[in-house]
Structure formats: structure tokens, C-alpha cells
Amino acid sequence: MADPATGRPNGGPASPGSIQGLLGDALRETTDLARKEIALFRTEMSNNLRSLFLGLGMMVGAAVFAVVALLVLTDALVKWLATVVHSEALAALIVGAVFLAIGIGLALWGRSAMSLSTLTPTRTTRQVRQDARVLSERVSG
Asked: Which position among 4, 24, 84, 107 has the lowest Cβ density within 10 Å, counted as fewest Cβ atoms?
């Protein structure tokens, strides 16, 4: 049964500097720290997944842009350029290369937003290392 005034077991040492008191405090602090680290991890992973979905949206946008641009503008642009270069084949080649470059650029941008390195919980890792350092200093000091 615990003493309501101190929260410590009856018959146990009540001094705050006792080994049992220190171990109890360390256990509570470690549990609290673990809960906070897990909450930070969840928050960071949620943000990273949001970034992943944003990159996926960019990839879909790139595909839609490429299809619409190819269907709507290609014919008109090729015909206009053919009047300038006096060759419909050369005009088609130039227009195709420009659209390909735009599509590749959008795909690379989307891929960089979806890379696995953006999913790494860097803040959580840094915080865990810092907490481990502080705990080891408290134990040794």
C-alpha cells in the first residue's frame, strides 16, 4: 500500500536520494522519454508520408501534362514549325524533343520528392541520440 503523502510504498525508504527513489525516477523519466520519442517519430513519419504523396501527385500531374500537351498542341506546333523550317519531319522531331525534356524534368522532380531519404525520420534520430547522451551524462555524473 502506498503512502498518500509521498506516493512511496509504506515501510520503504522515503528519502528522495535513496537508490529506490532514484531508480523509480529514472524509470518514470525513461518511460516518459520513450513516449515522447514515439510521438515525435509518428509525427515525423506522417509528415514524410505527406511529402511522398505530394511527389506521387507531381508524377501524376507530369503524366497528365504530357498527355494533354501531346494531344492538344503537338499537331498545331508541328505545322507551324514546318512552315519555319520547311520540313514537317524536322518540325515533328523538334517538338517531340521539347515535350520529352519537359516530361523528364517533371518526372525527376517528382522522383526526388518521393525518394526514400525523405522518409528517414532524421529529427527523431537526432533527438534519440541527444537523449541518450544526456542520460549517459546523468548516469555517469
From this structure: 4
The one-letter code for the residue type at 98 is: V
Exposed, middle or buried, 1 (CB in 10 Å: 0-12/13-18/19+)?
Answer: exposed
Residue located via cell numbers 519555319: 84
Is the C-alpha dihedral spanning 46, 114, 72, 102 positive or negative? positive
pLDDT digits (tens, 9 = 90+) for 78-127: 889 999 999 988 998 998 899 899 999 999 988 888 877 777 788 888 88
DSSP labels for 50-103? Answer: HHHHHHHHHHHHHHHHHHHHHHHHHHHHHHHHHHHHS-HHHHHHHHHHHHHHHH
β-pair partners for 9: 2
Burial of 129 (0-12, 13-18, 19+ CB in 10 A): exposed
Helix or strand (DSSP H, E) at 134: helix 122-140
